[in-house]
Each structure stands twice: as C-alpha cells, then as structure tokens.
C-alpha cells in the first residue's frame, strides 16, 4: 500500500473471474506490473540449512 | 430539473474522458448515472469506498443481494475481476493515490478548484462520506453538476461561499452547459453544449472564464 510501484511475481496466472472476490488479499488497484514465472528458478527453492 | 436529452448529452461527454483500464470512483447523483455510458470493453475498474473494486452492474429488486451494496446503497453485483476488502484497505487505496479518477457532484466550485459538496448550512447536509479523501488524493478530480442552482444562481464562483470539502482539487467541471478546466492560469472554457453558447456560459458563471487557444469544442 505504501510503495509507489508494486510488481507481482506469479507462479500461476488464471483467467479473469477465477478468483473468489472474498479471497483476494491485494486488490487490483494496488498492482502496477505482473511477471509470470511458470518455471521458478532454483534460487526460490526451500533453503537447506 | 434537467431535460433527459441534455443530461444524457452531458454524461456522454463526461464518459469520453474516462481512460481504458483506469480505476474510477463515482460519487452519488450524476456521477453514478455515468455507468450506462461507460463501454464494457473499456475495462474500467469501478471502485466503491465501502470496499469493492471492479463493481458489477446494479441489479433490480428481483435479483438484488441485500448484503452487496455500493457506497451509495445501490444493489450492485460481482463481475469477473471483482475484489472485496475492508474499509481501511479501501481508504489506504484512495490515500495512496491508486485511483486514477474521482467523479463527484458539487454545490459550488471556485476559480481555484475548491470544492463544496457536503453541506448547505441550515438547509441540507448529505454528509461528506469519502469525498474529502477522494477529492484530495485521486489523480484526477472531475465534477458533474448543474451549471446553476434551482434559483438560477451560478455554482461556479470566484470564491466558494459554502464550507469546503477540499481546496484546490478540481481538475475539470462538466455541467449541462459547458466543460470547464481548472488550470494554474484560471478557468478555461473548453467546451460548450450544442444547445448553449459561449455568451450564455460566461453570463451564468460568477468567475473569470478564459477562452482556449484553440476553438471551443461543441458537444
């Protein structure tokens, strides 16, 4: 809410209307850009300690 | 009372300035009457300050959901892309400047773009609702109102007499007679309704109006 620009990294993009209006945490007016990442790079994996 | 044809002509002119995929909040009265004039394929997201983005069409009594109303109390619906959120999130959205446009009604607008639309002392006080934030924080603030009050007095004045909702906030005024831009150089008469004239608009405006550098548009 405080940022001037909001970029969303997505693992899955669904068609318009598939999301339940009650389940949305960050409504569209907050989002400026969307990056779809179907193949998430290794760096996003669970960190092994 | 405004003739229906005059009102529709005005609303059509207002709707022309709404950009595709923009987030727009519509105030009560004339602004909400814009809905049928905004093409569906424009992808405009209507915001309602009680906590809805991408508000769906208003429903008749037979289909209405009593738990789903917009800020004006109208029975609205969901559409693909609708999101619900709480009041705090809704006003965070407004205050952080996420609304591209706020369209409001008004009792008076001044030469400097001051807006008075919440109270006529001792007469009528509908309350300000979300208008203070909407007027201050939306990227563009457009006002729709009758050019004169019911007694024929101008509502565009060099200075507002009624208590202000917000100062220096209005970008553009649409009336049954004209489209007027509020600029650092003062009020510019951008367009005139086809049933009116530049002379009539200047006569019925209690503030200095400047003609644009280009021709005055007729709508």
Labels describing this entry:
heterodimer, A: 49 residues, 0% helix, B: 219 residues, alpha/beta, 4 helices, 14 strands, globular
Q: What does this protein look like?
A:
The complex is a heterodimer of chains A (49) and B (219). Chain A has no helices and 2 strands. With 49 residues, chain A is an all-beta fold. The radius of gyration of chain A is 14 Å and the shape is extended. The N and C termini of chain A lie far apart (33 Å). The mean pLDDT of chain A is 90. In chain B, a hairpin with a 2-residue loop joins strand 11 (178-183) and strand 12. Chain B has helices spanning 4-15, 87-95, 131-137, 198-203; strands at residues 23-26, 45-48, 52-53, 83-84, 101-105, 108-110, 115-116, 140-144, 156-157, 172-174, 178-183, 186-192, 209-210, 217-218. The radius of gyration of chain B is 17 Å and the shape is globular. In chain B, strands 1, 2, 3, 4, 5, 8, 10, 11, 12, 13 and 14 form an 11-stranded mixed sheet that branches. Chain B has 219 residues and is α/β, with parallel strands linked by helices. Chains A and B meet through loops of A and strand 3, strand 4 and helix 2 of B.
Largest interface: A-B, 13 and 20 residues
User: Going across the major beta sheet of chain A, what is the strand order?
Assistant: 1-2
Q: Find the structural class of chain A using helix and strand composition.
A: mainly beta
- Termini separation of chain B (Å)? 20 Å
Percent of residues in helices of chain B: 10-25%
Shape of chain A: extended
How much beta of chain B, percentage-wise?
A: 15-25%
Number of extended strands of chain A: 2
Described by strand count, sense and barrel closure, the largest sheet of chain A is: 2 strands, parallel
* Low-confidence regions of chain B: none
Portion in beta strands of chain A: 15-25%
- The whole-number mean of residue pLDDT values of chain B reads 94
CA radius of gyration of chain A = 14 Å
Number of helices of chain A: 0
SSE run of chain B: HEEEEHEEEHEEEEEHEE
- Based on DSSP secondary structure assignment, what is the total number of beta strands of chain B? 14
Oligomeric state of the chains in view: heterodimer
> Share of helix among residues of chain A?
under 10%
For the sheet with most strands of chain B, the description reads: 11 strands, mixed
Structural class of chain B, by secondary structure, is alpha/beta
């Amino acid at each position: 809410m405080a940022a001037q620009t909001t970029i969303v990294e997505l693992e899955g993009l669904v068609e318009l209307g598939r999301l339940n209006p009650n389940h949305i945490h960050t409504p569209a007016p907050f989002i400026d850009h969307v990056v779809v990442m179907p193949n998430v790079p290794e760096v996003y994996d669970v960190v092994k300690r | 009372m405004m003739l229906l044809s005059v009102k529709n002509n005005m609303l059509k002119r207002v709707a022309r300035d709404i950009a595709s995929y923009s987030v727009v909040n519509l105030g009560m009265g004339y602004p909400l009457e814009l809905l049928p004039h905004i093409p569906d394929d424009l992808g405009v997201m209507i915001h309602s300050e009680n906590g809805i983005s991408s508000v769906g069409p208003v429903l008749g009594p037979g289909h209405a959901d009593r738990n789903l109303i917009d800020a004006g109390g109208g029975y609205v619906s969901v559409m693909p892309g609708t999101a619900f959120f709480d009041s705090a999130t809704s006003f965070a959205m407004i205050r952080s400047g996420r609304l591209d446009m706020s369209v409001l009604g008004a009792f008076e607008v001044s030469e400097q773009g001051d807006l008075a639309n919440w109270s006529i002392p001792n007469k009528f006080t509908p309350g300000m609702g979300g208008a203070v934030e909407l007027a201050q924080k939306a990227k563009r603030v457009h006002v729709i109102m009758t050019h004169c009050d019911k007694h024929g007095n101008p509502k565009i004045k060099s200075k507002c007499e009624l208590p202000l909702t917000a100062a220096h906030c209005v970008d553009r005024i649409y009336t049954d007679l004209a489209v007027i831009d509020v600029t650092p150089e003062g009020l510019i008469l951008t367009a005139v309704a086809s049933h009116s004239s530049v002379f009539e608009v200047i006569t019925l405006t209690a503030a200095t109006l400047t003609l644009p550098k280009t021709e005055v548009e007729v709508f």
